[in-house]
Structure formats: C-alpha cells, structure tokens
Amino acid sequence: MANTMTQVKFTIEADIVAAFKARCESEGVSMASVIRRWMAAGQPARAPTAKADTRPHRRKTVAELTGVLETVLQKEDEYRAAIPEAFQSRLEAADWACGQLETAIDCLQNAF
User: Fold this and answer.
1) C-alpha distances in angstroms, 50 versus 22, 39, 47, 112?
2) Do 56 and 87 fall within a single domain?
3) CA–CA distance, 44 with 27 (Å, rounded to integer)
4) Is 101 within 8 Å of 69 (Cβ atoms)?
5) Taking a C-beta distance cutoff of 8 angstroms, is the pair 83, 94 a contact?
6) Interhelix angle for 14-27 vs 31-40, to 10°?
7) pLDDT digits over 43-100, tens only?
8) Under 8 Å between Cβ of 59 and 109
9) Domain of 23, in residue numbers
C-alpha cells in the first residue's frame, strides 16, 4: 500500500485549538498524530442527527413558543386595557407592542 498525504483543514474556535495544542504538548504527541488516530478509528465525519433536529421537534418547539407569545400578548392586552386615556404615550407603546406580538405569532404559525 502506498503512502499518501492528505492535508485537512479544520475551522475551530481559537480557544479550543489552544487547549488541544496544549494537551498534545503536555502528552508529548503531535496534533497530527492524534487526528490521524482519531480518523483511523472510524469516527463519523459528522455527528449523528440529534432528536432536537427533527422537523416534528421543531414544529413542537414553534408551537410552544407561539403559546408563550400568545400568553404575553394576553398580558399586554390586559395592561393596555388598564391604562388611563390620559397616558397617550403608554397607550401607543402598548398598541405597538401588541401589534409586534401579533405579527410574530402570525409568522410562527405560518412557518410550518
């Protein structure tokens, strides 16, 4: 079997690289040898898909988030109803907040 060389590039956060390099130096091994052994061990190139990354799970999460926003909207409506008409700036701010919450809820409901 012929020896071949392949160059591999990783994009990793600098602090992780520094910790990996320090650990390799303290163990007296090269970073390349550690990576080579890891790759030879048959580790998957990608992590397996987690349950949290499934479409039904995302739908459930969006539904839960929509429920939370609807609760916040209900509370904001109650707050707005309790504001005296003399406080026009507060009424406008509450109206704007309710409008934004309604828009967010509509967007989430239309996402799936």
Assistant:
1) 30, 22, 8, 20
2) yes
3) 25
4) yes
5) yes
6) 100
7) 555 554 555 668 888 888 888 889 999 999 999 999 989 988 889 999 999 999 999 9
8) no
9) 1-46
